[in-house]
Amino acid sequence: MNVTFRCCAAFVAALLAACAGVGLPRAVETAPAFELAGRISVRYQDRGFSSSLRWKQAGGLDDIWLTAPLGQTIAHLETDANGATLTASDQKQYRASSIESLTKSAFGWRFPVDGLRYWVFGEAVPGASPAAIERDDGKRIARMKHDDWQIAFNYPTPEARRPSRLDIVGNDAQIRLAIDSLSRDAP
User: Fold this and answer.
1) What are 70-106's pLDDT values in tens digits?
2) Strand 174-184 to 93-96 pairing
3) What does the CA dihedral 117, 152, 172, 125 come to, rounded to 10 degrees?
4) Are the beta carbons of 44 and 108 closer than 8 angstroms?
5) I want to staple 36 with a disulfide (CB 3.0 to 4.6 A). Which of 32, 55, 156, 181 is the partner?
6) Number of DSSP helices (H) and strands (E) in the chain, helices first
7) Torsion over CA of 56, 145, 23 and 185, rounded to 10 degrees?
8) Is 102 in contact with 113 (CB distance < 8 Å)?
């Protein structure tokens, strides 16, 4: 065997060994399984977007449907171990490493699903250190700053533990998510 071949084989073996330990981020692996139905509106770059939203999350994998008022699919977003896929209404598919980077390149705004997996329950991302958290009199999160996102949690009643609406402001978008139904699946 020549030296070049041995070096290449050693490099590939090292690369594969390094990749073998790479999995989903810890926060994604521990995210609660849930199903959510709601509505989303986004303001970005002097434009606006709104749709109905159906989101199923289980085992760190996401299945998100954005639909028009009469039920037509605008986009279907899904994640797996290889990254994220967007299927547009014309059935064209786009891929990226994450939903956030995929929505940024396809729509012009980022959809922060890694944080939203927890925010919809009125929780901070486990293991993360938000820059600031404000709590209301019921000790629920009222406002939070996480990375470059500012999140306002709106609860339907003083006793509610889960928000019915999130107002999320980032560097490139203002997102309002109205939660119509949310069920946490049992493990």
Assistant:
1) 889 999 999 988 899 999 999 999 999 999 999 999 8
2) unpaired
3) -30
4) yes
5) 55
6) 4, 11
7) -30
8) no
